[in-house]
Specification:
Bound molecules: fe (ii) ion
Structural class: mainly alpha
Number of helices: 7
Oligomer: single chain
Largest sheet: none
Strand content: under 5%
Helix content: over 70%
Order of helices and strands: HHHHHHH
Radius of gyration: 17 Å
Protein backbone atom coordinates (compact mmCIF):
# COMPACT_ATOMS: atom_id res chain seq x y z
CA UNK A 1 0.00 0.00 0.00
CA UNK A 2 1.27 3.50 -0.85
CA UNK A 3 2.35 5.74 1.95
CA UNK A 4 0.99 9.27 1.70
CA UNK A 5 2.84 12.17 3.28
CA UNK A 6 1.12 15.14 4.90
CA UNK A 7 1.69 17.20 1.74
CA UNK A 8 0.14 14.42 -0.42
CA UNK A 9 -2.94 14.43 1.78
CA UNK A 10 -3.18 18.22 1.67
CA UNK A 11 -2.99 18.25 -2.15
CA UNK A 12 -5.49 15.39 -2.34
CA UNK A 13 -7.93 17.25 -0.04
CA UNK A 14 -7.60 20.41 -2.12
CA UNK A 15 -8.21 18.40 -5.31
CA UNK A 16 -11.32 16.77 -3.80
CA UNK A 17 -12.65 20.15 -2.68
CA UNK A 18 -12.21 21.63 -6.16
CA UNK A 19 -13.92 18.63 -7.78
CA UNK A 20 -16.90 19.09 -5.46
CA UNK A 21 -17.15 22.85 -5.90
CA UNK A 22 -16.41 23.50 -9.58
CA UNK A 23 -19.52 22.93 -11.74
CA UNK A 24 -19.04 20.09 -14.24
CA UNK A 25 -16.04 18.60 -12.42
CA UNK A 26 -18.00 15.65 -11.00
CA UNK A 27 -19.26 12.98 -13.39
CA UNK A 28 -22.04 10.59 -12.35
CA UNK A 29 -21.31 6.84 -12.35
CA UNK A 30 -24.97 5.89 -12.81
CA UNK A 31 -27.27 7.34 -15.43
CA UNK A 32 -29.53 10.18 -14.36
CA UNK A 33 -32.82 8.70 -13.06
CA UNK A 34 -34.76 11.64 -14.59
CA UNK A 35 -34.42 9.80 -17.95
CA UNK A 36 -36.56 10.93 -20.87
CA UNK A 37 -39.53 12.28 -18.95
CA UNK A 38 -40.11 15.90 -19.77
CA UNK A 39 -42.78 18.49 -19.11
CA UNK A 40 -41.65 22.12 -19.28
CA UNK A 41 -42.34 23.98 -16.04
CA UNK A 42 -44.12 27.31 -15.75
CA UNK A 43 -41.81 30.23 -14.93
CA UNK A 44 -42.80 30.41 -11.25
CA UNK A 45 -42.63 26.61 -10.79
CA UNK A 46 -39.20 26.54 -12.47
CA UNK A 47 -37.96 29.23 -10.08
CA UNK A 48 -39.22 27.35 -7.02
CA UNK A 49 -37.84 23.98 -8.18
CA UNK A 50 -34.47 25.60 -8.98
CA UNK A 51 -34.39 26.91 -5.39
CA UNK A 52 -35.13 23.45 -4.03
CA UNK A 53 -32.56 21.78 -6.30
CA UNK A 54 -29.98 24.39 -5.31
CA UNK A 55 -30.55 23.45 -1.66
CA UNK A 56 -30.25 19.75 -2.52
CA UNK A 57 -27.10 20.43 -4.51
CA UNK A 58 -25.60 22.25 -1.51
CA UNK A 59 -26.58 19.27 0.65
CA UNK A 60 -24.62 17.03 -1.70
CA UNK A 61 -21.61 19.36 -1.55
CA UNK A 62 -21.82 18.94 2.25
CA UNK A 63 -22.02 15.16 1.83
CA UNK A 64 -18.87 15.20 -0.32
CA UNK A 65 -17.08 17.26 2.32
CA UNK A 66 -18.29 15.05 5.15
CA UNK A 67 -17.02 11.87 3.48
CA UNK A 68 -13.73 13.55 2.50
CA UNK A 69 -13.17 14.82 6.04
CA UNK A 70 -14.05 11.44 7.46
CA UNK A 71 -11.72 9.59 5.07
CA UNK A 72 -8.88 11.81 6.23
CA UNK A 73 -9.18 11.10 9.96
CA UNK A 74 -11.35 8.02 10.59
CA UNK A 75 -9.84 4.52 10.62
CA UNK A 76 -12.94 2.53 9.62
CA UNK A 77 -11.00 -0.75 9.22
CA UNK A 78 -14.10 -2.89 8.58
CA UNK A 79 -16.30 -0.54 6.63
CA UNK A 80 -13.96 1.61 4.55
CA UNK A 81 -15.18 -0.04 1.32
CA UNK A 82 -18.87 0.62 2.15
CA UNK A 83 -18.10 4.23 3.06
CA UNK A 84 -16.20 4.72 -0.20
CA UNK A 85 -19.17 3.26 -2.11
CA UNK A 86 -21.46 5.74 -0.34
CA UNK A 87 -19.10 8.59 -1.27
CA UNK A 88 -19.26 7.49 -4.95
CA UNK A 89 -23.06 7.51 -4.83
CA UNK A 90 -22.91 11.03 -3.38
CA UNK A 91 -20.99 12.07 -6.52
CA UNK A 92 -23.93 10.82 -8.59
CA UNK A 93 -26.31 12.93 -6.50
CA UNK A 94 -24.14 15.99 -6.93
CA UNK A 95 -23.98 15.54 -10.71
CA UNK A 96 -27.74 14.86 -11.04
CA UNK A 97 -28.66 17.97 -9.01
CA UNK A 98 -26.25 20.00 -11.12
CA UNK A 99 -27.82 18.64 -14.34
CA UNK A 100 -31.30 19.58 -13.15
CA UNK A 101 -30.18 23.08 -12.14
CA UNK A 102 -28.70 23.55 -15.59
CA UNK A 103 -31.94 22.37 -17.23
CA UNK A 104 -33.79 24.96 -15.17
CA UNK A 105 -31.38 27.67 -16.33
CA UNK A 106 -30.03 28.11 -12.84
CA UNK A 107 -26.73 27.79 -11.01
CA UNK A 108 -25.42 26.13 -7.81
CA UNK A 109 -25.23 28.14 -4.60
CA UNK A 110 -22.44 30.71 -4.35
CA UNK A 111 -22.16 29.78 -0.67
CA UNK A 112 -21.03 26.21 -1.39
CA UNK A 113 -17.36 26.81 -0.40
CA UNK A 114 -18.58 27.82 3.08
CA UNK A 115 -20.77 24.69 3.43
CA UNK A 116 -17.94 22.53 2.14
CA UNK A 117 -15.49 23.96 4.68
CA UNK A 118 -17.89 23.57 7.61
CA UNK A 119 -18.86 20.00 6.70
CA UNK A 120 -15.28 18.96 6.01
CA UNK A 121 -14.27 20.23 9.45
CA UNK A 122 -17.16 18.48 11.16
CA UNK A 123 -16.46 15.21 9.31
CA UNK A 124 -12.77 15.38 10.23
CA UNK A 125 -13.52 16.15 13.91
CA UNK A 126 -16.02 13.28 14.05
CA UNK A 127 -13.33 10.99 12.60
CA UNK A 128 -10.85 12.10 15.27
CA UNK A 129 -13.48 11.50 17.99
CA UNK A 130 -13.57 7.86 16.93
CA UNK A 131 -15.14 5.61 14.29
CA UNK A 132 -18.38 5.06 16.19
CA UNK A 133 -18.93 8.83 16.36
CA UNK A 134 -17.85 9.29 12.78
CA UNK A 135 -20.37 6.67 11.66
CA UNK A 136 -22.97 8.16 13.98
CA UNK A 137 -22.36 11.52 12.33
CA UNK A 138 -22.90 9.98 8.88
CA UNK A 139 -26.11 8.29 10.07
CA UNK A 140 -27.50 11.51 11.57
CA UNK A 141 -26.56 13.53 8.47
CA UNK A 142 -28.21 11.02 6.16
CA UNK A 143 -31.32 10.99 8.36
CA UNK A 144 -31.58 14.79 8.17
CA UNK A 145 -30.92 14.80 4.40
CA UNK A 146 -33.64 12.21 3.87
CA UNK A 147 -36.12 14.32 5.87
CA UNK A 148 -35.29 17.30 3.62
CA UNK A 149 -35.70 15.24 0.48
CA UNK A 150 -39.14 14.02 1.55
CA UNK A 151 -40.15 17.60 2.33
CA UNK A 152 -38.91 18.72 -1.10
CA UNK A 153 -40.68 15.84 -2.85
CA UNK A 154 -43.91 17.10 -1.30
CA UNK A 155 -43.18 20.63 -2.52
CA UNK A 156 -42.50 19.69 -6.17
CA UNK A 157 -45.15 20.57 -8.75
CA UNK A 158 -46.97 17.29 -9.47
CA UNK A 159 -45.95 17.33 -13.14
CA UNK A 160 -42.20 17.71 -12.44
CA UNK A 161 -41.33 14.04 -13.03
CA UNK A 162 -37.66 14.73 -13.72
CA UNK A 163 -36.92 16.31 -10.33
CA UNK A 164 -39.12 13.73 -8.61
CA UNK A 165 -37.22 10.77 -10.02
CA UNK A 166 -33.87 12.27 -9.04
CA UNK A 167 -34.97 13.04 -5.47
CA UNK A 168 -36.59 9.62 -5.04
CA UNK A 169 -33.42 7.80 -6.06
CA UNK A 170 -31.34 10.08 -3.82
CA UNK A 171 -33.62 9.41 -0.86
CA UNK A 172 -33.37 5.66 -1.40
CA UNK A 173 -29.55 5.93 -1.44
CA UNK A 174 -29.41 8.20 1.65
CA UNK A 175 -31.50 5.78 3.70
CA UNK A 176 -29.18 2.99 2.63
CA UNK A 177 -26.14 5.08 3.65
CA UNK A 178 -27.77 5.75 7.02
CA UNK A 179 -28.44 2.03 7.60
CA UNK A 180 -24.90 1.10 6.53
CA UNK A 181 -23.43 3.56 9.04
CA UNK A 182 -25.72 2.33 11.83
CA UNK A 183 -25.01 -1.36 11.15
CA UNK A 184 -21.30 -0.58 11.12
CA UNK A 185 -21.56 0.65 14.72
CA UNK A 186 -22.55 4.32 14.42
CA UNK A 187 -23.83 5.65 17.75
CA UNK A 188 -26.51 8.16 18.60
CA UNK A 189 -24.82 11.57 18.81
CA UNK A 190 -24.98 13.80 21.92
CA UNK A 191 -27.97 16.15 21.83
CA UNK A 192 -25.93 19.41 21.52
CA UNK A 193 -24.19 18.00 18.43
CA UNK A 194 -27.52 17.11 16.82
CA UNK A 195 -28.91 20.57 17.58
CA UNK A 196 -25.83 22.23 16.05
CA UNK A 197 -26.14 20.07 12.93
CA UNK A 198 -29.83 20.98 12.60
CA UNK A 199 -29.04 24.69 13.04
CA UNK A 200 -26.33 24.62 10.34
CA UNK A 201 -28.58 22.69 7.96
CA UNK A 202 -31.41 25.19 8.56
CA UNK A 203 -29.06 28.07 7.79
CA UNK A 204 -27.92 26.27 4.65
CA UNK A 205 -31.43 25.47 3.37
CA UNK A 206 -32.70 29.00 4.08
CA UNK A 207 -29.86 30.73 2.24
CA UNK A 208 -28.99 28.33 -0.60
CA UNK A 209 -32.58 28.50 -1.82
CA UNK A 210 -31.91 32.14 -2.83
CA UNK A 211 -28.13 32.48 -3.29
FE1 LIG B 1 -26.56 12.36 -1.31
FE1 LIG C 1 -25.85 9.88 1.42
Amino acid sequence: MRHYTGIDRLINSFDQALRSLVPGATAAHRSNPAEQTDAPLTVSDARHVAGLMRVNHSGEVCAQALYHGQALTAKLPNVRREMEQAAIEEQDHLAWCEDRLKELDSIPSLLNPIWYGLSFGMGAIAGIAGDKYSLGFVAETERQVSAHLIDHLNQLPVYDERSKRILEQMNEDELHHRDTALHAGGVDLPFPVKITMTAISKLMTKTSYYV
